[in-house]
Amino acid sequence: MQEDRKALVIFGSTGDLALTKLFPALFRLFNDGNIPEMLDIIAMSRQPLSDEAFIEQLVHHIHEADTTQLQAFIAKITLLTCDIHDRDSFQPLHALVAPSALAIYYYAIPPRLFGKVTDQLHVSGCLNDHSRVVVEKPLGHDLMSARAIHDELSSRLSESQIFRIDHYLGKEAVQNLMALRFGNAIFEPLWRAARIRYIQITVAESVGVGDRADYYDRTGALRDMIQNHLLQLLCILAMEPPARLSPDAVRDEKLKVLQALRPIEAHEVVRKTVRGQYAPSSSSEVLGYLQERGVAGGSVTETFVALKAEINNWRWAGMPIYLRTGKRLHSKCSEVVIQFSDVPIKLFETSGSQMLSNRLVIRLQPHESIKLFVNAKTSGRGMRLEPNALNLDFCDEGKMRRWTAYERLFLDIIAGDLTLFLRSSEIEAAWSWVDPIIEGWEQHMPNPERYSVGSWGPSASDQLLARDGYIWLNSEGQ
Ligand code: BG6
Fold it and tell me: Tens digits of per-residue pLDDT, 61-81?
C-alpha cells in the first residue's frame, strides 16, 4: 500500500449528476493543479461502455478548449463496468483500490442502491476503517425512509466515514455568510428577533422539471428543496456561533436550529404554507407541469412552496422567516434578505427622502454578492436620504476564477473535513419538521394552486406575506 495514494471511485459515472457536476468539477480542480498527483479516479458504470464512448460523454460535458489538459485529466480516469448485484464485478475494483491508503466512494446512484453497494464493497474487501462514502439527496422520502437509509449505511460505516452532501453548503456566498456572521463582531448584537423584522429566503429557478420528471413527480418542491437546501440555509443564518470550526461544533449548532423550528401542525398548513404548480401562460410557449414528458396525468405534485417558519428559541422567537422556492418562476435567483427594524423616530421622513430600513441581501446566484443597504444623504441642500448599498461583490472581473460548490466540497472530502456535510441527526430533524406539513397537505390542501410560467408563483404566496403586512422582495431585496 502506498501512503499517499488515494482512489476516488464514482458509482453512476454515466448518470446526470456525475456528467454534469462531478466530472466537470474534478476537471477544473485538476486544471488548476488542486487535485493531488496521487489521486486515481475510477468511474463505475452499470452499462458496458467503451472507453471511447465514455470519453466522448466527458468531453461533451466538460467544455474545455485546452485538449492537452483534458487528455491529461482523462488519462487519470479508469472506466470499470460493474453490476452491483454481482459480487464478482467488484473484484477488478478491489484490485485497483488495494494499493491506495484511502478510498473514497461517491454514490451518484439512487438511494435504494446504497445498501447493496455498501455490502458489496464490504464483502469484496474494498471497505476499511479509513474509507469514505459520499451520498447525496434524496436521503429519504420521510423520516422513516431516511432512517432506513441511515441504518443501511451505518451497518458498515461509522458516522465519520459518511459524507452527506448538500451542495448549497459549498456555495461561496453561503460560506461567506458564515464569514460575515462569525468573522465580524458588528453583526452579532443585531442578529436577533429584537432587531430584525423578518427574513426571506428565496431559491427561484426559471427552469422546469426537465428530464427528471420520474424523480420529481414522486418528490415535489418541499422534499426536493425545502427539506434540505433551504433548511440548511436557514441553519447557517440562525445558528449560534459555534465554539470552534470543527465539524461537530458546527453541526451541533445547526441541529439545535432544526430542533427549535416551531412545528407547523396539520391544521395550520392552510394559513402558513402555499403549494403551487406551474401552468402554461398565454404569453409563452413554455409547457405547464402537467404537459411535461413523464409527469403523471392529473399529478398534484407541487413545483412551488412558500411557507412561514419560526424558530422557538431565545434569539428568534416571534420573528417570521419566509421560505420560498419554485420552478419556472420569473428568473433564476437565490437570495436571502434580512430586513432590520425601523429607526425608532423618523427624523428625515418629511424631507422627500426615499429611505428604507436597513437591509442585508445575500445573493447566492446568479452573481454572488452581499449587499448591506444603508441610508445616506443625497448631494445638495437639506437632509434628503436614500438607500445605498455597501457591496461585497464576489464575481468581480479580474478576481480569481469562482469555484463551483462541488469543487470546494470535493477538496473537503479528500481532506476528510466533515464541517460542511450533514450529520444523520440533521437529516432526521429536518424530516421531523417536514413530515407533518406533508400530512397536513394530504388532509387540507390536496391540490396545488396553479401559477403561470414566468410569474413569481401563485397569488396565495403574496397573501401569505400580506397577512403580516409584508411583500416578497424579488431582486436584490428591491
Ligand atoms: C437540486 C434539486 O438539489 O438542486 C433540483 O434536486 C434543483 O431540482 C437544484 O434544480 C438547484 O441547484 P442550483 O445549484 O442550480 O441552485
Answer: 998 777 888 899 999 999 999
